[in-house]
Amino acid sequence: MTSSHPSLSNGSSNGRVVIVGASLAGLRAAETLRAEGFTGQLTLIGDEPYEPYDRPPLSKTVQAGWISEEHTTLPRRRDVAAEWLLGTPATGLDLPNRQVLLADGRQVPFDRLLIATGTRARPWPDKEQAALDGVFIVHTRDDAARLHARLAAGPKRVLVIGAGFTGSEVASVCRELGLEVTVTERSVAPLAGALGQAAGTFAAYLQRQHGVDLRCNTTVLVLEGNAQKKLRRAQLSDGNELDVEVAVVALGSLRNTEWLQGAGLAADARGVVCDASCRAFDADGVVTDDIFVAGDVARWPHPLYDGQLLVVEHWSNAVTQAETAAHNMLASSATRRAHKHLPSFWSNQFGVNIKAIGLPTIADTIVLTQGSIEERRLVAAYGHQGHIVAAVAVNAPRSLPAYQGLIEARAPFPPELHASNGPTELHPLPAGFPKRGQPTHDPGAVPTGAGPNTPEQRISEEVLKLLDPRVPLGAPPLMMMHANNMDMGTRSVMQEGHTGEMRS
């Protein structure tokens, strides 16, 4: 069944297509539209003034000084012959009149629409502290340029708040630059949100081997500035105070869906729900024919994961989902494709390459299948309810295609590989993933519930307070007792970013 919204006939190669989101997914979708014969009017809307650029280098190679942020512009596969509306964000969607509303008052008409608005960095919850000179996030080109300039100036100590991939990569660059760096992580280990506690202990070993002052089960309570509003000190939940000149807030991301409020789509803070062909659902759970979704903002069903809607913040998923969405925007019902991309991601940090495939975050068990920690070359497989669901490789990326085949075949866990560099006996361990909904974690790929009409979970005031990244996971320290007077702005920021995925 489809919605009754007016649309072009299936297979049309003309008309007006608007893409909201001028980053990786938006560009690749535009290129695919032209490659597959779209000859109509094409418009891309972006909130930043820059042409599409690559974000992964911003926390790594840009900070190390290997390339400048200006050299992260994405290569073009072809001329997309598009109208570019850059530097002005979309603020609303008028479905009855087929228009995207812009912040400057313009109204952009469309026949078909692709939503690819992605994510933004989760801010530090105290706005006054977040505005201190020396407090940074890393998400945009401008963010990266500002942080690089400050790191190049040689601060005495850098504080990184959150040890997910972004925070860990920034810490790695700091050590490459010879800077003293302290990393605070709310959970028990770095990368625990993406890879689990068991794998995170290896990440902790790497960080400490490279001289990082790593403090797990620890949060930052307060960022203090001087009279000139420059960052000078941080109070930690372990009772220590640190003199710091730079703090990098790496608390994960928020999906850019606020502009869709009241538009009539199945969209909330978890993302925009679409089917396997990337067509958006409306608020009544009816799939649309002419509204599509791709990239980090999409919630979509993967056939391997029991009907759960996934959100995937990976480079490769943004590309493949954009290509699928663009193909389906032009396809007839008989020639539509399903988006079945298996999540995959990689990171270079502390002298090692970490690459994963599948969905580690649903796993309950992990087992070392190849290599060893001592040689810093290993592969571990993740299991869920007796099936292999993911694998992570350290300095062994060529091993992963074999695991991809096992994951796609829903092979039994633990896998029997008989690898020459495998252990004589497999010893599965609890994977150790933290509770979801904690702002310090950036898992990269997680299930978000089943069905387009599944509501976000209501959160009690008490639980809402515990989602504040300043509060440790255990009992709050005594000095936090006076922090219960959080302003409403802080509470709304916390609730806005909650994914509705609490589990015990």
UniProtKB/TrEMBL annotation:
Domain FAD/NAD(P)-binding: 16-322
Region of interest called Disordered, as start-end residue ranges on this chain: 417-456
UniProt cross-references to Gene3D superfamilies, sorted A to Z: 3.30.390.30, FAD/NAD(P)-binding domain (3.50.50.60)
InterPro entries the UniProt entry points to: FAD-oxidoreductase/Apoptosis (IPR050446), FAD/NAD-bd_sf (IPR036188), FAD/NAD-binding_dom (IPR023753), FAD/NAD-linked_Rdtase_dimer_sf (IPR016156), Reductase_C (IPR028202)
Record Pfam families: Pyr_redox_2 (PF07992), Reductase_C (PF14759)
Coiled coil: none
Necessary cofactors: FAD
Reductase C-terminal domain span: 345-418
Domain of life, source organism: Bacteria
UniProt keyword Flavoprotein present: yes
Keywords attached to this entry: FAD, Flavoprotein, Oxidoreductase
Protein name, as recorded: Ferredoxin reductase
Gene: hcaD
